[in-house]
Amino acid sequence: MQADGLEKIGKDEAKQAAFEHSVCFLNVKYVSVDGAVWGNDYSVSDAINIEGLSHHFGNQQVLKDVSFSLAQGRQRALLGPNGAGKTTLFSILTCLLRVAEGRATVFGNDVARASGKALARIGVVFQKTTLDLDLSVSQNLAYHGAIQGMNPRRVRDRAEQELKRLQLWERRDDPVRNLNGGHRRRVEIARALLHEPDLLLLDEATAGLDLASRVSLQAYIRSLVQEQGLAVLWTTHLVEELEADEDVVLLRDGAVQAQGKLTDLVLAAGVSDAKDLLLGLSAPPGHP
Amino acid sequence: MTASAYFYCFLGVLKRELQRFVQQRTRFVSALVRPLLWLAVFAAGFRTTLDGLAIPPHHGAISYEVYIVPGLVGIIVLFNSMQSSLSMVYDREMGSMRILLTSPLPRSWLLISRLFSSALVSLLQVYAFLLIARLFAVTPPAWGYLAAFPAIVCSAILLGALGLLLASIIDQLENFAGVMNFVVFPLFFLSSALYPLSQMREASEWVYWLCAANPFTYAVEFVRHSLWLGFSPSAFWVTTTVAVILTTAAVIGFDPSRKMLAGRPGAH
After folding, report:
1. The total number of structural domains that make up chain A
2. Host domain of residue A20
């Protein structure tokens, strides 16, 4: 039911309805029975909403007044050279770092005040592998399900679904140590999706993978956005991973330089392509 | 979050620690070899040390093997707790701690679950050791094994929390081994694990007071009394109180951002 109506509806129904409206750019909100609001009103239902976020490590300012949002069912790429603040931003969104200044919300839940509610809706793949190499694929997934508070039976069902979708079902009993880099990444994605999050954070998830694995992973992630209405914020260093109409946020020295469609940003910067745009970001300040 | 979510999380953390324990069989063997060497070699050499002495909770003379076994239970728990803390520092360095901390459940619950999972592994090692100790004529009453259960858990929580606190303070894996030498050995030797405090006092008054101020002494005494179906109020209260204080300090002192982003120059 729409947010101003009387009757509340199921989560999946509300989510699907809101997603359909967001595709049509209609500003309609829905409320599911658990009280969550779904829809494309940026103030409430954005998957991510960051306003004036700043962060320091000692005297070093690593984020400077960062503001941007990510709508539900959309995908945005966070681009920037090393030290731009991408990892710090991910650490704040996943509540590993405290918000020092500004505000960050995940589906309306302030990560500083309602971290549990925010984290329950996030699936994350960190740049560095975080799997337990001594345990098997299914044991890793079972552990993740448990720390998400999931019923073991539900974990088994979901693990089967995700591992089959990612063509890892046959390898479920293999120790992670025996998997190659591409397979490990797929296990991490299966794990991130296990608890059916609404937002997926991918921090350089394709780093170190061969071309075939990268293409396959990207295609899978895009299908999740299109078919399931998942919101995805991802970072990459690889220009070839970006599509022409990619929605991007450019970070440099902890500040947002620009945001929008990649083609528009390339045009606005007066450069020939995305590669030159990123090279410009990596150049020292004041340098062309 | 519902109560069942907390329960599933707790069970999941316990299960993971057990799975890791099963995978690392050498850890189990080495955990038993150390105290068995003390029991078989060290205790044999000191067999006459306690001749004619009645050490509480025993009412008559006991062999040195009988005296030393609770101390060796203490050292099993102590080493396992430090091993578990080392694994936590390793997890933090390797990044897998990040995944645990992205759980929607409160961090305090996650850390307490970690403490109990470490205690579970200690229990398995301790009971395996106590069974082998029967071969050395250390045969506590059958109910003593059950009575010692809460004492071992309490001691494991105390020492696990100490390890967790150290893991929160220590920056790098390499530093942890060094710190262990400054913590594990003084805790063990300055306690009643190897010698009764009364004998310690006869030898040196200040060593006695150091031993009396050491919480590990009370953990060992708690196990000793329970195993032989006795009860020492001071051992019980000191062990449980220090366990609660250290657990609270470890939970409050745990800062997930510490070293997680460091060690990666430019990883902002």
Report:
1. 1
2. 3-282
Tell me the pLDDT tens digit for each residue of A76-133. 999 888 888 888 999 899 988 888 889 999 999 999 888 899 999 999 998 888 898 8
Asked if pLDDT for residue B136 goes beyond 80, the answer is yes
A252: chain B residues, CB-CB within 8 Å: none
**Least CB-CB distance to A96: which of B19, B260, B266?**
B260
Residue B103: list chain A partners with CB under 8 A: 119, 147-149
Q: What is the CATH number of the domain that holds A267?
A: 3.40.50.300
Which residue segment(s) compose the domain that B129 sits in? 3-262
Distance (Å, whole) CA B268 – CA B260: 11
Q: How many domains does chain B have?
A: 1
- pLDDT-based confidence at A17, cuts 50/70/90? low
Residue at B268 is within a domain: no
Tell me the pTM: 0.81
Does some domain include residue A240? yes
**Proportion of chain A above pLDDT 70, given as a percent:** 82
B241 in contact with chain A, both atoms CB, cutoff 8 A = no
Q: Which of residues 123-142 of A touch B (CB under 8 A)?
A: 124, 126, 128-132, 134-135, 139, 142
The answer to whether the CB atoms of B8 and A151 lie below 8 A apart is yes
The distance in angstroms from the start CA to the end CA of chain B is: 32
The two structure tokens encoding residue A156: 């088994």
Q: Which residues of B51-70 are buried (b: 16+ CB within 10 A; e: fewer)?
A: eeeebeeeeeeebbbbbbbb
